């Protein structure tokens, strides 16, 4: 979608460090990492938020998690633990309106979510 930062990353017009890619999912390093490992997993099909994923398209979420677990195992995070987060909407703290799943790890994360 025009004017979507993450669609521009998918198109290659905004550079990024890719971590994972298949025909449906792209993962790349967050530009402002909050942990030693902070990757974003996005569907290649533009969808504004989790609320815009229709019931018939819920495989999108499964595909994101399948990609996450591939990366988690490759980077050994399964042995140490990690966190996944999908911020959704204004009160959920979503800044970029293209569904994205944060993968955080590589340090002891705080128990706080707020
Ligand atoms: P949100 O707050 O919407 O859940 O997370 C958006 C994330 O996107 C933030 O962690 C932010 O650092 C990241 N981000 C925003 N713009 C860019 C960009 O141009 N490139 C990359 N790699 N990450 C970005
Ligand atoms: Zn987009």
Number of domains: 1
Helical segment tally? 3
Please compute the radius of gyration using only Cα atoms: 14 Å
Quickly give the structural class: alpha+beta
Major sheet description: 5 strands, antiparallel
* Apparent shape: globular
Low-confidence stretches: none
Strand tally is 5
Average predicted local confidence, pLDDT: 97
CATH architecture: 2-Layer Sandwich
The portion of residues forming beta strands comes to 15-25%
**CATH topology value:** HIT family, subunit A
Describe the model.
This protein has 114 residues and is of the alpha+beta class. The protein has a single domain, classed as 2-Layer Sandwich (HIT family, subunit A). It contains 3 helices and 5 strands. It has a 5-stranded antiparallel β-sheet. The radius of gyration is 14 Å and the shape is globular. It starts with a helix and ends in a 9-residue tail after the last strand. The model has no long low-confidence stretch (mean pLDDT 97). Residues 5, 14, 16, 28-32, 40, 87, 93-96 line the site of guanosine-5'-monophosphate (5GP).
């Amino acid at each position: 979608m025009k004017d979507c930062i993450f669609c521009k990353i998918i198109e290659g017009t905004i550079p990024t460090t890719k971590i994972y890619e298949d025909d449906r999912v792209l993962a790349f390093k967050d530009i402002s990492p909050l942990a030693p490992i902070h990757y974003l997993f996005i569907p290649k099909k533009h969808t504004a938020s989790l609320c815009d994923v229709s019931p018939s398209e819920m495989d999108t979420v499964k595909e994101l998690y399948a990609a996450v677990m591939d990366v988690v195992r490759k980077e050994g995070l399964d042995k140490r633990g990690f966190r996944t987060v999908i911020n959704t909407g204004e009160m959920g703290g979503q800044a970029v309106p293209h569904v994205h799943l944060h993968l955080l790890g590589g340090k002891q994360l705080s128990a706080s979510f707020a």
